[in-house]
Amino acid sequence: MSKPLKGKVALVTGGSRGLGAATARSLGGAGADVAITYVNSADKAFEVVAELEADGVRASAFQADQANASTAGKLIDDVVTRFGGLDILVNNAAVSVEQGRPIDDPDADVAALDRMYATNYTGIVAIIRAAAKVMRDNGRIVNVGSGIASRVGVPGLADYAATKAGLVGYTKGAARDLAPRGITVNVVQAGLMQTSMQPPDPETLKFMLSGLSIQRVGDPAEIAAAITFLATPAASYITGAVLDSDGGYTA
Are 182 and 136 in contact (CB under 8 A)? Predict the structure, then answer.
């Protein structure tokens, strides 16, 4: 089997479950050594590491709270110390809070919203800045976004949409800044996926699917495949791009 990422070191944030775990498996399958982060799900993170190691992948898990931007430098230093370098960064970790609450809701949890901004935007910026200082030339940065950055669709998602739209803008700027070193920076806008979280009730799910061109829930492995492609040498001329892997939500 082809291993286009053999000899590369990848870091996937939020890699203990869902899309993050699927991405870790995909990158490992392509030949990369894989580091993942987790906040509280240590057991799940080490299960992913054990699975990767069983497949012959060098892997490690690191505890890191992305909402605390001051920890970004240590995270990157720890990964480089463990693996000897860094070639691929996938910023997957994110949270969504207060869904369905309009911006004029007097009962909105502002503290939770602030933490979401810290996790989904400023924390990612801090990790990118720290990684850019040590990433080897011709590296890859892939930020996981959401189609909601392009099309909100329903009320009550303004703050979440803002974090994802901001990430698109930062990606495009970073792509310009890091291009002289051959480092590409792109966004994969993920859509509705099968996860371990409680699924919506049938009527809500029917409504959500009705807005898609491909009217089914996506498999995390499908989005992980798009992320992995952007991490390979085959994507060396793609940077500052937004790749929608969302079943046609933004079509």
Answer: no
pLDDT above 80: residue 27: yes
185 lies in some domain: yes
Query: What would the pLDDT profile of 108-155 be if each residue is shown by its tens digit?
Result: 999 999 999 999 999 999 999 999 999 999 999 999 999 999 998 888
Q: What is the identity of the amino acid at 99?
A: Q
Q: Which domain holds residue 197?
A: 9-242
Is residue 4 in a domain?
A: no
Residue with tokens 């699975």: 51
Three-state DSSP class for residue 62: strand
Any domain includes 2: no
Question: How much is the pTM?
Answer: 0.94
Nearest to 193 by CA among 167, 164, 152, 224: 224
Distance CA 181, CA 95 (A): 31
Catalogue the active-site residues.
160
Domains identified in the chain, total number: 1
- The CATH number for 223's domain is 3.40.50.720
> Is residue 250 assigned to a domain?
no
Measured CA to CA, the distance from residue 106 to residue 30 in angstroms comes to 49
Angle at 132 between CA 73 and CA 159, to 5 degrees: 75
Instruction: Count the residues in the chain.
Output: 251
What does the DSSP 8-state code read for residue 218?
Answer: B
Q: Outline where 118-201 has alpha helix (H).
A: 123-134, 158-178
